[in-house]
Amino acid sequence: MTNEQSRFATARDAALSSVMFPHNLAPATVSFSTYGHLLITGSEDMIRLAAEQLRDMASLTLLVTENVQNQDSEHLEKALNCATDLTVYSAKLKAVKGFLGQFQTIIEQNGETAELAKVAQNRATFDLILNLGEQNLFNTELPPAGYFHVKPESDQLNELIDELPGYIGEFDKPRYFQINNDICAHSSRGQMGCTRCLEVCPADAISSLNDKVEINPHLCHGAGGCATACPTGAINYALPQPQRLHEYLQRLLQNYLSQGGEKPVILFHDHEQGKVLVDQNRDSLAGNIIPVQLEEVAAAGQESWITCLASGAIQVLLLDTEAVPQVVRDLLNKEVSLTQLMLDGLGYNSSQLQLISSEQLLQISTGSDFKVIQPAALINQSEKRNTLFAAIDHLVEQAKTELPSYLALPAGAPFGQVAVNNTSCTLCMSCVAVCPTQSLTDGGEKPALNFTEQSCVQCGLCEGACPEKAITLEPRLLLTEQRSQRIEIHAEPAFECISCGKPFAPRSTVEKMIEKLSGHRMFQGPALNRLKMCEDCRVQDIYTDLSANPEKQLEL
After folding, report:
1. Is 313 helix (H, G, I), strand (E, B) or coil?
2. Which residues share a beta bridge with 60?
3. DSSP-assigned letter for residue 359
4. pLDDT tens-digit profile of 51-94?
5. Element housing 331 (H / E)
6. What is the largest CA-CA distance in the chain?
C-alpha cells in the first residue's frame, strides 16, 4: 500500500469509528406464532425417513407428491419401516400459501378439494413445511418464512432436521418498510398507473387490492427493491429511515475529508454475503474505498447514490452477490443505467456509479481521473424527490460546463413533462383529480391547467384519465429552475353566464356540452340556454319555468 493509500485508509478508519450508523433502537416488528405442526412433502421413501427423525415436532403430516426416488431394495425396506404409525396421504397438491405459523394447503382427492390440515390434524393451518421433492411449492425467488425446500441428498437436510424443533414459539422480525398510500402513484379513480413495486418483489409480498398497494409484512424479506423502484417515496426502507441514512452518509464523507482523506469511494454492501466479502478483503481494499453496510444493497436507491456524489464522493459502488434476487439485480441494473445516463449528460463520468461483482471488488479502479467537486451543504430533505433534486442541482452547479436545458430520458423514466394538446383539451380537470403528486393543478377561479415538472413521476394516470386523449408524457430531466416552478400549460377564456354575466366554466367545455346535449329532450327550445348559465341562474330558471308551467313537474 502506498503512502497515499495508507493515509486514505487511516482517514477512512477514523471516519467510520467517529460516525455511528443510525440503527433503529426499537424498530417496528412483525410477529409469528408457531406450535410445531409440520407438513413434509416429497416422495414416500424420503418423507418417511425424515419423519422418523422429527418426532419432537408437535405433529407430523406426510404428503406424497412425487414418485419414489431411490429404488434400492435395502433403502426402500428401511424407509417403509419408518413412521409406520403415521398416515401417509397421497393426493394432488392444488395450492399452498401462507407463512410461518399459517400455511394453508389445498389438496384434490377423488375429484374433491379439501384443506389438508383440517383432514389430517383438524387444524386450520400448518406451522411449517419441509419439502423434500424436486418441485418447488412456491414460485417466488424468496420463499416465505417457515418453508424449507431441500434435496434429500443435500448436506443441509441433516442441519435442518436438527433446527426444525426450534421453530416452536413466538418469533419477531423487523417491519422493513413504511408505505404512504396518499402519495402512491399506483391507481386512482379506476385508472392504473405505476406498478414498479409490484414488478420487483422477489417474495410476492406486494399486491394491488382495491386499487391500493399493500405489503404483506409476514412475506416481506426486506430485499429493498420496492423502495428503490418507488418514484414518489410512498414506500421507504425503515432500517434506517432514509433521512437518517443520508445524514450518516454525508457526515461520514465530511469526516473522511476532514481527516485528510481524498477521492472517497462509497461501497454499499449487504449485511450477509457482502459483509463477509468486505471483511475478508478489508486489508486489500484501496484506502479511499469506504464500505457502508446496509440491510440489503437495494435499500439505498438513486437519491442515495447521487447524494453521495453531491457530498464529495467521486464514485459509488454497489456490491452484487449471489444473495441478491435476480429480479432485484435486474432493477439495480436498470436504475444504475438510468443514473449513468444522467451523470453522462451532466458532464460527469458514467463509471462514477457501478454495480460490481465480488470478483471486481479488488480490481476496481479508485477513480483517480474522476472529477472532484466541492461537497454540498447538508442535504437534509424529508422527501425522496426533494433529496434527489437537491443533489442533482448541486451536480448541475458544480458541472462547470455549459449544459443543455434538459436531458432526454428513455421511456419509463420517472422524470419528465406532461404535454397537452390545447386544441383537444377542454379543461375538464380529470387529470388533476387523479394526479397523486399534485404535479397537475387547476387554475382556481381561472380556467387553466398548471404543471410542476419536479413533482411529475410519469405514472400515466393523467394520460389514462383524459377523456379527450389530449395528454402525452415526455420523459426528460429538466435542468433549469423552471423544473420546480408551477407553470401554466393550458388556459382559455371562461364562458360567461348569459343571465348574470358570471364566468363559470371553460368556453370549450360549455360549447362541447351544447353540442352533445342539443338533441336531448330536456334541452329543447329555450331550455338549451340553461347550459349557458351558471349553477345559480340555472336553478332559478328551472323553478321559474315550473311555476309558470306546473304540468312540467310530471316530467321530472
Report:
1. coil
2. 38
3. G
4. 999 999 999 999 999 998 788 888 899 999 999 999 999 999 99
5. helix 326-345
6. 104
CA distances from 8 to 4, 53, 186, 206, 354 (A): 6, 55, 45, 43, 21
Tens of pLDDT, residue by residue over 155-205, are 899 999 999 999 999 999 999 999 999 999 999 998 999 999 999 999 999
Helices (H), 259-311: 273-281, 302-310
The average pLDDT across 302-324 equals 97
Which architecture does CATH list for 176-237? Answer: 2-Layer Sandwich (3.30)
- Secondary element (H or E) of residue 219: none
**What does the block give as the cell for 392?**
442533482
Please name the helix (run of DSSP H) or strand (run of DSSP E) that holds residue 374, with its range, or none: none
C-alpha 46/C-alpha 82 separation (Å) is: 10
- What is the reported pLDDT for 104? 97
Cα angle at 260 between 256 and 266, to 5 degrees? 30
Grid cell at residue 414: 420517472
**Cα 512-513-514 angle, rounded to 5 deg:** 90
Classify residue 39 by burial, with Cβ atoms within 10 Å: 0-12, 13-18, 19+: buried
- Given the candidates 3.50.50.60, 3.30.465.10, 3.40.190.290, 3.40.50.2300, the CATH classification of the domain at 29-173 is 3.50.50.60
Cis peptide before 240 (omega within 30 of 0): yes
165/318 Cα distance (integer angstroms): 38
**Residues 303, 389 contacting (CB under 8 angstroms):** no
Question: Roughly how many angstroms between the first and final C-alpha of the chain, as a whole number?
Answer: 92
CATH topology for the 408-491 domain: Alpha-Beta Plaits (3.30.70)
